Amino acid sequence: MFIKKFLILITLIIFTGVAMAENTKEKLLIELSHGDVIIELHSDIAPLHVEQIKTLARDGFYDGIIFHRVIDGFMAQTGDPTGTGMGGSGYPNLKAEFSNKPFDRGTVGMARSSNPNSANSQFFICFQPAHFLNQQYTVWGTVVEGMENVDKIARGEPPANPDSMIKVTVIE
Question: Are residues 120 and 96 in contact, defined by beta-carbon separation less than 8 angstroms?
């Protein structure tokens, strides 16, 4: 009887701990005209990138920035204050934090130049799996709510009438 109660207690602790760990993950809220998008932040695999994203969001850097490169069946890219794909923030570029996390639908990765250590403020959200990006770009988040709103972002490079991030907030 003692062993059975002990096993039940251990099981509850493990499952409660897992649930609590999932609920304490920080998230990013992106408000779009089509509706909200919530991204779970992966500080466990990309701590430097997540910290920079959170800092930029708290600074209001992302508010009003357009999606300047949106390729149907691939991804929507944003985070450039100039809207050209050439701009960044005033913060230093980041060292790559490649991981084994695959680029699946809803994966959020950091955009960069041909230099793997050039990521700064631009990021993209995958519409479809893009496994050719695996271990070539840093994954820092996953859309956990509102992917249907990402799907509604206007296509183009740049789009004729680009959508923008109205407001970006860190949810702690």
Answer: no
